[in-house]
Design a protein that fits this description.
The complex is a heterodimer of chains A (475) and B (400). Chain A is α+β, with helices and mostly antiparallel strands and 475 residues long. Helices cover 24% and strands 29% of the residues of chain A. Chain B is an alpha/beta fold and 400 residues long. The chains are: A alpha+beta (475), B alpha/beta (400). Chains A and B meet through helix 11, strand 18, strand 19 and strand 20 of A and helix 4, helix 5 and strand 5 of B.
């Protein structure tokens, strides 16, 4: 039976840093274009949730994910599995295992291969935040994003991997010690010298396995940790115009572990049935995968709403960020905080008791009168019934701003804090933070949706919970 | 089942109130000694005459030892109570009930708070371990939610509402400037108030009550015993306290233009005191003006103004010192700051002075010379949608 990608989804954060801002601030040439920046309340886990939600939103009901894997080179926690918060935020049941593949950029390929070869539907999420010191090429050329793919079997597969080949080699090109925030890279011509032949080797082997020639390749996707080598490999294939896929580094930057997924998803957004995609990823070797797009992709696009499409860099979904805010969010500019106590970290026992609420935004609904209650409770606020509540997940239910305020005194990494009282479609009210917004634009009656965020980090504990964000629709 | 109340059964026979402010020179224990000593002298009694004590404090000490140790009490019962911003009033309520039931003859209610020793701005509420899902908004932000809601419901332009809120702050500072015990003893002109830096929503610094230290105390006895201590006892007419179900934060029908808890506490108190028309019958009211829109909404919740009309009444001066119903004649939380445990008793202290005709001439309200004999004190703790509220009615005559 055909096995491969069924639905997919990507997430590129709201905020974009124009490289010209770096030039303005530091007086160094930073080139044209923009890079995507995870908000102060995002990390690789929260971005993975957004990408995962978008993938699952267009997944067939008959194909629930039976495993979830999360690949990142920037895990928010060590020792603790980050994929479990992802699992919960996606509303997955306890019987679905969640695994991390963390540490190196190449783990993104591992997550995709694991999902391809598993016997059950597997959601594979690639997420990364790329950091560099101020003024560095990594700061300028990096990006933050996540991509999610549900692999399964059957007629609904839209892209089938038909061949895969590796060329693995140990050489020191890019590395980072566990306690470092910025990477090191060796002199770049050496890396290029190593990577280009490895790519050629993997590509040749994959094409041989698939039994195709270069002329049959419709889309050539090249991503990797070495910018110069990626460009060289893109040029090496002697493909017709339009075959080499835009690697999106000009707009969102190189998103590391996530990048092969982001560029592949961008190609899948418009690929024709029958198209052949050759994807090469350069990270401590080369991995080449050949996908064949199936006839199911037309039906997928028709039926899957705009859910995955809206992620592909719709201008409406993005706003420009100042370089000073970028530095602040990345911890390179330590700013005075208000004279307020630092956030108290969540305590593990109450967090565990309220797991479905905290991580899955699962509220309760009264069986007797139908009233929704957020946070969930045992006694109905409307009819008073006790212990007659059913769980109801509201993560994907939009709402309207019933009231709002802007708190200029609260402790937040991004003052001022914007808070909204949200009345959810179908009932229920909750007060929470509003994120990804210009405070000056908030108003009563605005439409909002929920998004999984990192509220704060204190005492080495990340406090994950849900916030609202504006729904941005074409006028 | 309706609470019967203790109308005319208990009387205040002595009170004390420290100067409120940034009392860096005094600890909570010093402030307690100051307030208690003044109250004992006021009633002409000693600490040994008092049978039991109720101490209100949110965070300046735990247990009865917080009071018994600095006062060196002789093995007396001391109950430490906390009920957010109604803490001081809650100490008073329980002391009154203990006297009314006959278990003891004389009780002291005393409240204290040292808020600024923490070094933080504004109020810091102690927290229990949690799941971290409650939004961590400051009090100004929570109460600022009242303003846009009020504007929307009653079609008041934001600039117009700002003028109303500014006038409320101006009025309370005007009153406080006449009060030697107030934290802020200066009038503040309206332009300064209106242009103060924004803290949250539409609220500027001058829309927020101050943060201060202070203590206040009351000594209560059964009404029939009051004549042994003073010729002018202040009689308790009603004590009402409610803790709301806190559904406003979860119920879309709550519109942020009212505190149902305040409305309910007021209604209970009026019933106990036999008041039909508070605006016409009360001589004065000390209300919980933690933020200017709070006072506006309270006018309507306590029946001082019709729904949607409070803003017009505020502009018309109805609640000014020389208005029809003076509200916060002592300067309120605005001029006194809000040492949580002390505020409710500080409000009673103003009622005590005014009803006994002991307020200084420049602050004396004319409603009393016109024959009104009742005063109301009010607190609310929490935030819109989830709060507790207290209302007392006291009077200068047993059968007023």
């Amino acid at each position: 039976m055909t096995r491969g990608i069924v639905p997919y989804g990507t997430y590129v954060p709201y905020w974009m840093l124009a490289r010209s801002r770096i030039t303005q601030a530091l007086g160094i040439p930073a080139g044209p274009g923009t890079r995507a920046v995870a908000s102060y309340d995002e990390d690789t886990t929260t971005m993975a949730v957004e990408a995962g939600r978008r993938a699952l939103a267009s997944a067939p009901a008959s194909m629930p994910a039976r495993e979830v894997v999360l690949a990142t080179a920037d895990p928010p926690y060590m020792d603790k599995t980050n994929a479990v918060a992802l699992h919960d935020a996606l509303g997955m049941t306890r019987s679905v295992p969640a695994f991390d593949m963390s540490g190196s950029v190449r783990s993104g390929t591992a997550a995709l291969r694991y999902a391809q070869y598993a016997p059950v539907p597997v959601l594979s999420v690639l997420s990364d935040m790329r950091n560099g010191l101020p003024g560095s090429s990594d700061e300028r050329d990096g990006g933050d994003a996540a991509a999610a793919f549900l692999f399964g079997s059957g007629s609904q597969v839209i892209a089938e991997p038909v061949a895969h080949a590796s060329a693995t080699s140990e050489f020191l090109d890019r590395w980072r010690l566990p306690d470092e925030t910025a990477s090191h890279q060796w002199e770049e011509r050496f890396g290029e010298h190593e990577y280009v032949p490895l790519a050629a080797e993997a590509v040749a082997a994959a094409m041989k396995e698939a039994g195709i020639t270069a002329a049959e390749i419709d889309h050539f996707v090249v991503t990797g940790v070495h910018t110069r080598a990626v460009k060289a490999v893109q040029r090496s294939g002697e493909f017709a115009a339009g075959v080499v896929a835009d690697d999106l580094t000009g707009i969102i930057g190189n998103t590391g572990t996530a990048h092969q997924g982001i560029v592949l998803a961008n190609v899948l957004d418009t690929a024709e049935p029958g198209a052949v995609i050759l994807a090469v990823s350069l990270a401590d070797g080369a991995e080449a995968t050949i996908f064949r797009v199936t006839d199911a992709i037309d039906a997928y696009r028709d039926g899957s709403s705009a859910e995955h499409r809206r992620s592909t860099l719709r201008p409406l979904d993005h706003a420009e960020l100042s370089y000073m805010k970028f530095l602040t969010w990345r911890g390179h500019l330590e700013r005075e905080q208000p004279r307020r106590p630092e956030p108290t970290p969540p305590a593990p026992p109450p967090s565990a008791r309220h797991e479905a609420w905290k991580f899955g935004f699962t509220a309760s609904r009264c069986d007797v009168c139908g009233t929704r209650l957020l946070p969930p409770g045992r006694v109905c606020i409307h009819c008073g019934a006790v212990d007659r509540m059913a769980e109801e997940r509201l993560a994907d239910v939009p709402g309207v701003v019933a009231n709002f305020t802007i708190d200029r005194l609260a402790f937040t990494p991004n003052p001022p804090m914007v808070a909204v009282v949200v009345d959810f479609d179908g009932g229920g009210r909750f007060r929470c933070e509003l994120t990804d917004v210009d405070p000056a634009t908030v108003g009563i009656g605005d439409r909002v949706e929920m998004t999984f965020r990192k509220v704060s980090t204190s005492q080495s504990i990340h406090n994950y919970f849900w916030k609202a964000r504006p729904i941005r629709e074409e006028a | 089942m309706a609470a019967k109340g203790i109308r005319d059964q208990v009387a205040i026979v002595g009170m004390g109130c420290t100067h409120f402010g940034e009392r860096w020179d005094k600890g909570a224990d010093d402030l307690l000694v100051d307030a208690a000593t003044e109250a004992f002298a006021s009633a002409g009694v000693s600490k040994d005459d008092v049978d039991a004590y109720w101490l209100g404090t949110m965070g300046s000490g735990i247990s009865g030892l917080t009071l018994s140790k600095p006062l060196c009490l002789d093995y007396k019962p001391v109950t430490r109570v906390e009920n957010m911003c109604a803490t001081g009033s809650e100490a008073f309520r329980n002391a009154c009930y203990a006297v009314a039931c006959g278990a003891i003859d004389m009780a002291m209610a005393i409240g204290v708070e040292k808020l600024k020793d923490s070094g933080f701005s504004g109020l810091v509420i102690p927290k229990s371990p949690s799941d971290g899902t409650a939004s961590d908004l400051t009090a100004p932000a929570l109460f600022s939610l009242l303003a846009p809601a009020y504007e929307k419901k009653y079609g008041v332009d934001p600039a117009e509402l700002k003028e109303v809120l500014t006038r409320i702050a101006w009025k309370n500072h005007h009153n406080g400037a006449l009060n030697p015990r107030a934290q802020f003893r200066r009038e503040v002109d309206k332009a300064t108030i209106a242009c103060s830096p924004i803290m949250a929503g539409q609220l500027g610094t001058f829309d927020c009550s101050g943060v201060s230290h202070g203590s206040a105390a009351a000594i209560v006895v059964r009404a029939e015993d009051a004549c042994h201590h003073t010729a002018k006892p202040i009689v308790v007419k009603a004590l009402s306290f409610v803790a709301g179900p806190a559904t406003g934060t979860a119920d879309p029908s709550y519109d942020y233009t009212t505190f149902p808890e305040v409305e309910r506490a007021g209604r209970n108190a009026y019933r106990e005191a036999g008041i039909d028309d508070p605006r016409a019958e009360l001589a004065m009211a000390e209300v919980h003006d933690c933020f200017t829109p709070t006072e506006l909404v309270i006018y309507e919740d306590l029946g001082f103004a019709e729904r949607g009309q409070g803003w017009k009444e505020a502009l018309a001066g109805t609640f000014d010192l020389d208005g029809e119903l003076p509200v916060n004649p002592d300067g309120g939380l605005k001029a006194f700051g809000h040492p949580i445990g002390a505020s409710g008793l500080r409000m009673l202290f103003e009622a005590w002075l005014q009803l006994r005709g002991e307020a200084p001439p420049e602050r004396t309200i004319k409603s009393i010379s016109e024959g009104r004999k009742l005063a109301l004190t009010h607190n609310l703790g929490g935030s819109p949608g989830e709060c507790v509220s207290f209302v007392s009615i006291v009077g200068s005559e047993p059968s007023a």
